[in-house]
Amino acid sequence: MVDYRAFFAEKISEIKGNGQYRTFIEIERLAGRFPTALHHHKDGPREITVWCSNDHLGMGQHPEVVAAMQRSIERSGVAAGGSRNISGTNHTHVLLEREIAELHGKEAGLTFITGYAVNDAVLGVLGKLLPGVVFFSDELNHASMILGMRATRAERRIFRHNDPSHLEELLSAADPDVPKVVAFESIYSMDGDIAPMPELCAVAKRHNALVYVDEAHSVGMYGPGGAGMAAQLGCADQVDLLMGTFAKGYGTAGGYLVGDAPIVDAVRSFAPAFIFTLAMPPALAAAALTSVRKLRESDNERILLHHRAQLVKSLFQEAGIPLVSTESHIVPVLVGDAHLCKELADRLLEDHLCYAQPINFPSVPRGTERLRINPSPVHSPAAVRHFVSAVDEVWDDLGLPRVPAPVTGS
Ligand code: PMP
C-alpha cells in the first residue's frame, strides 16, 4: 500500500538535501513605507529592508494607485463576481484593456488574473488552433511559456539563448509552409540580460513567423511611457503578440496580452485559462490602470530605477563582489554555491536586517547560485550603501572569492 505521507516527506527531504528546497520568510508590507517591511521573526516582529521585491518602481504603494483601488472597492466591492465572459467583465477591465492596447500601439488588449496565465493561455491557443504549428523557443524561456507550449503537443524547437543566427538556422530547416511561432523574452530575470529583439524579429519575419514576446520584466520600466523593450529598441511593430504583467513594474497584479484584434479575440474565445476562471477583481484593474497611466505620464520612476541599479552595480564592482554581467535593472550577485548562498542571505537578514532571497537550481544552473538584487527608486542611496557594505562584510566572513574591480576613467 502506498504511504502517501511518507512518499512526499521523502521528496521534501531529497530537495532539502540537495539545496533545492525553496524557503521563504514571512513579511508584512507597511503601507507607504516600501522598501521597509515587518519581518515576523521567531523572536518577534522587526523592521527589515526588502532587496528582492518585484515591485521594481514602488508603484504598489503609490498613493494614487492605493487611492484608486480604495475608491473602486467602495464602488464595486472586492471581486468581479464571475468569469470574464459570464458577468465578470467590469467597465474598468475594458478601460484597462484599451489603455494597454494604446500604450503598445496594438489593436486590442486582454487582461488575465496572472501573467503566468497569459503565457499558458496564448501559447496554448496558438499551439492548438494553428494546424501543424512549430514553436521556436529561446532555451531560457520562462516556465509558464514552456508549459503553455508543451500542453499543446505542438512541435517545439529550441534556439540557443539570444542567438538570432541559431534561430535563422532552425527556421531555414523548417517546412516553409507550416505556421511558425517564435517565442522569447525581452529581459531575462535570472541574468538580467536583454534580447537582441530587432535581430530576432527580423529573422522571424523573414520566415513569416508570428512573434510572441514576454515583456514581463520590462513593461513600465523601459521604453517611451513604459511601453517596454520592443518600443525602446524600435521594433514594437515587428512584435505580433506582446505579453506583460502588472505584477512587476506596475506594482499591482495580473497579466495582459496585446496584439491584432482577431488573435486576441481567439484567445478570449478559446483559452481555458481565460474562460474558466474568475475575472481580475475590478479594484485591481483600477489600481493597474492608475499605475499604467502614472508611468505613461512621467519618466521619473524609470530614471530613478536605472540610477539606483547603476549605483548598486558600481558599488559591488568597486568592492570586487562578482556580478552576473547584467545590462538591466536586475543585479545578480554570483555566489556559486547553494549552501553559501543561503548562509549569505541568512546572515544579511539576521545581522543587517536586509532581505535578499537566494536563487538556486533549477531556477539557475548549479554552480551559479546567486542573490538577485532588485533595487528600486524607493531605496535611498544611503540604504544602497548600507546594503552593499553589509554584503561586503558577510562576504569576507564566509571566505567568498573577490574579482578585480573594473578599471574606470580615461
Ligand atoms: N513571465 C516571466 C518572464 C516572469 O518572470 C513571470 C513571473 N516571474 C511571469 C511571466 C508571470 O507573471 P505573473 O507574476 O504576473 O504571473
Report on the structure:
Belongs to the class-II pyridoxal-phosphate-dependent aminotransferase family. Its EC number is 2.3.1.37, 2.3.1.47. It catalyses: succinyl-CoA + glycine + H(+) = 5-aminolevulinate + CO2 + CoA; 6-carboxyhexanoyl-[ACP] + L-alanine + H(+) = (8S)-8-amino-7-oxononanoate + holo-[ACP] + CO2. The chain is an alpha/beta fold. A seven-stranded mixed beta sheet has the order 4-10-9-8-7-5-6, with helices on both faces. A four-stranded mixed beta sheet has the order 1-2-3-12. Helix content is 43%, strand content 16%. It has 15 helices and 14 strands. Strand 1 (27-29) and strand 2 (36-41) form a beta hairpin. The chain folds into two domains: 64-297, Aspartate Aminotransferase, domain 2 (3-Layer(aba) Sandwich); 314-410, Aspartate Aminotransferase, domain 1 (Alpha-Beta Complex), CATH 3.90.1150. The structure holds 4'-deoxy-4'-aminopyridoxal-5'-phosphate. 4'-deoxy-4'-aminopyridoxal-5'-phosphate binds next to helix 5. 4'-deoxy-4'-aminopyridoxal-5'-phosphate binds at residues 114-116, 119, 142, 144, 185, 189, 214, 216-217, 245, 247, 255.
